[in-house]
Design brief:
The structure is a single chain. This protein has a domain of about 100 residues: Beta Barrel (OB fold (Dihydrolipoamide Acetyltransferase, E2P)), CATH 2.40.50.140. Helix content is about 20%, strand content about 30%. It contains three helices and seven strands, in the order βββββαββαα. The strands form two sheets. A five-stranded mixed beta barrel has the order 3-4-5-7-6. A two-stranded antiparallel ribbon has the order 1-2. A hairpin with a 2-residue loop joins strand 1 and strand 2. The protein is extended.
């Protein structure tokens, strides 16, 4: 039996000399992790869909990003060629950019962000007026509390 030392590294966010978040510079701007982008379907493979992200105007090539099958929000085994024909407009969130400037996109995370934003707006809507945060739906307990008054 041989023992070897174990090195525990802190998370990347706590490392003092951690590399900053990756970004890709396109003709008319910078694409960074966490940004929401729109693009057109350029290529469909069995492992995902490639989006052509046009950051400039007409005539600019832009960059391509991959939306893996798991990040598309479609059922497993679905025919991607039928669901995403070439030229289809699609919106996604940039999840990661690696050292070779390959962009990983996600429709699922974009939808989760939209749901979270809608939830927070709904939750805080009634708080400013002194109302309850959740409406009463006429449960049996609500009916009994009204009778006692």
């Amino acid at each position: 039996m041989r023992l070897a030392p174990v090195y525990v590294r802190p998370p990347a966010a706590e490392e003092p000399d951690a590399a900053p978040e990756m970004a890709v510079t396109v003709d008319s701007g910078t694409l960074a992790v966490g940004a929401s982008v729109k693009g057109t379907v350029a290529l469909v493979e069995r492992y995902g869909v490639f989006l052509q992200i046009t950051a400039g105007g007409a005539g600019k090539r832009g960059v391509r990003g991959l939306v893996p099958t798991a990040e598309l929000g479609v059922p497993r085994g679905a025919d991607l060629h039928k669901l995403f024909p070439l030229g289809t407009e699609l919106e996604a969130k940039i999840v990661a950019i690696d050292e070779r400037n390959r962009i990983k996109l996600s429709v699922v995370e974009l939808n989760a962000d939209v749901e979270r934003r809608d939830y927070e707006a709904h939750r805080t809507k009634g708080q400013g007026k002194g109302e309850a945060t959740s409406p009463r739906f006429g449960t049996l307990g609500d009916l009994f509390s009204q009778k006692k008054r």
